[in-house]
Design brief:
The two termini are about 45 Å apart. The protein is globular. The chain is about 0% helix and about 40% strand. The C terminus is likely disordered. The protein is built from 1 helix and 18 strands. The protein has a 16-stranded antiparallel β-sheet. It has a two-stranded antiparallel ribbon with strand order 1-2. Among the domains are: about 100 residues, no CATH class; about 90 residues, no CATH class. A hairpin with a 5-residue loop joins strand 11 and strand 12. The protein is mostly beta strands. The longest helix has 5 residues.
């Protein structure tokens, strides 16, 4: 890759030593240092250990090949500032360490340690008989101690296994997902979060089931606050004549989206490469 530095263009190999498992799975690679850095970064998807046993804490050792359950399941993702040597026990995950705990082929727990943390961020996953994810949760006190994207989530499904319900924070916030009917029963039409219709996200589709518009949030007038449109080229389109995405930033009277894309706000027209002035 060519990097542009203060002294001019400089060609650098950013990734090297890419290693693969015998049956094609990625084992790891090395991120080479940039000009201002001195040491590379090793990334490894490590196998080994008994994958059904959860780690005790962030000091979990590098997975043992000698005590492997021989399933080929990834036990740990480790990122460390060092040369990449597959299977090296010196990869202690000093930058990032995530350990996976399995039940059959499903991940039921992850323990993540960032930048030498001592307490892992632990996430627990549960499934139903058809292997659909039904909940994601945290051990008591873990979310308060380590943060993360969620404290608790539960999921519900319709008869076609489309996700129809999502709740967060012990059912404090519930989302409803609605689908089309008939032959298009698997097309997601809307997502209604807590707060009602003004925060709802809606979708429309063409005759082939491809998303055409996505509306996010609505004003009191019913107009969408954000609109994204998708256009598709014919199957036999010539090279360079592909489809496009048109994005509308929040449109309010007196504002002007300052983005050089193909934009359209509700009630306005757009041309390629020109920002659109909102009405008013």
């Amino acid at each position: 890759m060519t990097l542009f530095t203060s002294s001019g263009p400089q060609t650098e190999r950013l990734v090297s030593k890419v290693a693969w498992e015998p049956f094609g799975g990625l084992r790891g690679y090395q991120i080479n240092p940039l000009p201002a850095q001195t040491r590379p970064v090793a990334v490894e998807y490590a196998l080994g250990d008994d994958g059904t046993q959860a780690p005790a804490n962030c000091s979990a050792a590098f997975p043992s090949a000698a005590n492997s359950d021989l399933t080929g399941r990834v036990r740990s993702l480790r990122v460390n500032r060092d040369d990449f040597t597959p299977g090296s026990t010196f990869n202690n995950g000093g930058i990032y360490k995530r350990t996976f705990t399995w039940s059959a082929d499903q991940v039921v727990r992850t323990d993540t340690c960032l930048l030498g943390a001592t307490t892992p961020r632990t996430e627990l996953y549960a499934y139903d008989r058809t292997l659909r994810l039904t909940s994601a949760s945290r051990p008591p006190g873990n979310w308060d101690a380590t943060g993360g994207a969620f404290a608790e989530q539960t999921f519900g499904y319709d008869r076609r296994s489309n996700r129809s319900q999502l709740s967060q924070f012990y059912s404090t916030f519930s989302y409803s997902l609605a689908y089309d009917t008939g032959a298009r029963a698997d097309l997601l039409m809307s997502v209604a979060p807590p707060g009602g219709q003004y925060r709802e996200t809606n979708f429309t589709y063409d005759a082939d089931g491809r998303a055409v518009t996505k509306e996010s949030g609505h004003y009191m007038s019913g107009q969408p606050a954000n609109l994204m449109e998708f256009r598709y080229a014919p199957f036999n389109a010539a090279e360079g004549q592909g489809g496009s995405a048109r994005v509308c930033l929040p449109c309010r009277t007196g504002q002007r989206p300052d983005v050089q894309l193909l934009l359209r706000c509700p009630g306005t027209q757009a041309r390629q490469g020109q920002p659109v002035q909102s009405a008013g």
